[in-house]
Amino acid sequence: MRVLRGSSIAGGAQVGHAGPMAAAGSAPGEIRVASPAGRWVVLTTVLGSGMAMLDSTVINVALPRIGEDLGTDLAALQWTVNAYMLTLAGLILLGGALGDRYGRRRVFLVGVVWFAAASLLCGIAPNAGVLIAARALQGVGGALLTPGSLALIQAGFHPDDRARAVGLWSGFGGVGAAVGPFVGGWLVDGPGWRWVFLLNLPLAAICVPVALRHVPESRDPAAHGRFDVPGAALGALALAGVTYALIEAPEQGASPVVIGAALGGSALGAAFVLVERRRADPMLPPSIFRSRLFTSVNLVTFCVYAALGGFFFLSAIQLQVVAGYSALGAGTALLPTTVLMLLFSASSGELGRRIGPRIPLTVGPLLAAAGMLLMLRVGPDSASFGGYVTEVLPAVLVLGTGLVVVVAPLTATVLAAVDTGRAGLASGINNAAARAAGLIAVAALPLLAGMGPEAYRDAGEFATTFRRAMPMCAGLLVAGALLAWWTVRTPAATTAARSERPECAVHCGVVAPPLEPEREEG
């Protein structure tokens, strides 16, 4: 069995000795799902990963109220979303490696405490600048706890129970993702948008002591070498430069600052590639992209999740500003998409294993594109029950059906494209690519659609630009479908996918594909 060294996203099953704070009565690699210790470990990991998942799915419905309360423009709302995704996407691969080296429970708990502290800062932020900075700090915490939650399950449970434990973790996580927008809308309309963030504090207060008492420590004794801090920093800064240029361009135009940020981000991206090619133990090994299938499927992932990132950012505002929904109404209106994924993702994965990934990866994005185009019918009269049933619901149902068809086969194909020992790394790269895609889409779409800084305050202006943006999102999905049809070959991929049955079969991969656990070789 081989554990990824220096870049593990999920952590392997191989473990070191438990530290002095190891859970009483349990040992890493020996916990059973049916035991009290097993239930405590599942609870801990679900609470930890649920914090990050909730914040990723509920923030969009809170944006109009945040803008109104803090007196911000559209750019500040974009940064409220993107500051979090920027640090999370840039550091998530490094977060898995830190857990392997220094202890998965330790790094997970640091992430939980860090995330909670940043959430408190978000909740009390007096202005947009503080909120954006706090969101960036949240992303750092998320990069530590997100891979750590799955790594704790992989390292803690007996091999015979590991798949079941991962299934419980992904299933409960899927439920959290599905109800997140509903809970977020209820909080925004009730106690206020600040409670979207403050809700994380009681979750962390439960998670930390339970983890200290019931979750054994583990690490990868084979982890060695230096961490790829330069690679992580260059990747995050490259994304930051490009994102800044895209967000600020509508207001500043082709100013020296905007042009400098764009050129600087591009240069840092090139430097990132050079650093990763020359490092002995890189965070993102270029050799993994020698697989044509892996590269093409990640490009499909980028197209799909760029479209989704833009869609959910803009649709939550459209429903509230143009259609007149409350925050709770907007969150509930979009709920069928994630519910469909929760209910049918496992069946979709099984279908993909039977017929191969080429058809699902082509048909799924096309269906999702049709759903986004149906959102063009949403207008001022869509807030009534009849308007929802005839205008909003068909769009989200078609979109959800498309995501059901594409997401599980997409994940399985990524894993099938690489060697067994690199499954965790492949999943982490795919997850980071999806988050980076959403980040760029949220930054670029308002610019491409011509949204001004105050567009979200004017129903007429926002509706006009929304009608320009949705075909762009649909176009990204069509591009992904065509790419899949041209580059994914069913026979070879099907054989591999059948032998690499994904364990995270139940999920709601709206923000990013689900992380997958390490595989044992042989």
List the helices and strands and how they pair.
Elements: H1 36-70, H2 74-102, H3 104-123, H4 128-156, H5 159-189, H6 194-198, H7 200-214, H8 229-252, H9 256-278, H10 292-322, H11 327-333, H12 335-355, H13 358-374, H14 385-416, H15 423-449, H16 459-487, H17 490-499
Quick gist of this model?
With 522 residues, this protein is an all-alpha fold.
Structure description:
The chain is an all-alpha fold. The protein has three domains: 1-227, Up-down Bundle (Growth Hormone, Chain: A); 229-278; 288-522, MFS general substrate transporter like domains (Growth Hormone, Chain: A, Up-down Bundle), CATH 1.20.1250. The chain is 74% helix and 0% strand. The chain is built from 17 helices and no strands. Helix 2 runs antiparallel to helix 15, helix 13 (358-374) runs antiparallel to helix 16 (459-487) and helix 14 crosses helix 17 (490-499). Mean pLDDT is 82; it is low at 1-25 and 491-502.
Report the total helices.
17
Task: Output mean pLDDT.
Answer: 82
Query: Could you list the spans in which at least 5 consecutive residues all have pLDDT below 50?
Result: 1-25, 491-502
**Annotation, overall tally of beta strands:** 0
Distance between the termini: 7 Å
When the domains are counted, the total is: 3
CATH architecture call of the largest domain:
Up-down Bundle
Q: What is the radius of gyration computed over CA atoms, rounded to a whole number of angstroms?
A: 22 Å
Beta strand %: under 5%
Oligomer: single chain
Would you state the CATH class of the largest domain?
Mainly Alpha
Structure class: mainly alpha
- Binned, the helix content reads over 70%
Shape: globular
Largest sheet: none
CATH topology tier name of the largest domain: Growth Hormone, Chain: A
